[in-house]
Amino acid sequence: MDVERERRPVSRNPRQVPEWRKWSATKTPCKELVAVPDISTEEAQRVLSAGVRRAAEMALPVNIAVFDTGANLKTFVRMDGALLGSADIAIGKARTSALFQLDSEALFEYCKPGGTSFGLENSNGGLVVFAGGRPIRNVEGVVVGAVGVSGGSVAQDAEIAQAAAAALAAASA
Per the structure, how many domains does the chain have? Predict the structure, then answer.
């Protein structure tokens, strides 16, 4: 077998541009990139810390998830003693809130039997449509992420999520 022959490029013309490079340079669907406000790692940690503080004040071990504007997990904590099963619920609440830029419970009325969007909670890989997920807004009021809390009652989760989400705007002011 001729090894040198195997290493040669398909085209004998070294100036020929591969077809995929021509396409990507001319057929890009987006001519300009649009900057989307997003939560930084430091800001996500600040939100998480505020949630942990509030949960500790309530003597309630919970799971807290912080997502960015693209609905990607940015940071997460499972406090000592928090229910294992509520970790996925906290993540689901944060993801739901990030996807719709609403409090997670705002979708409940639409999703319940007889609601205008019955079954919506089964979309997007599963949504969690009860309290404990909140959008995170910066000092300008722009959504930069979302937080989800689970491990207490629905009201307790909502209270901790509110304290966590408010931390970023308060610290930026």
Answer: 1
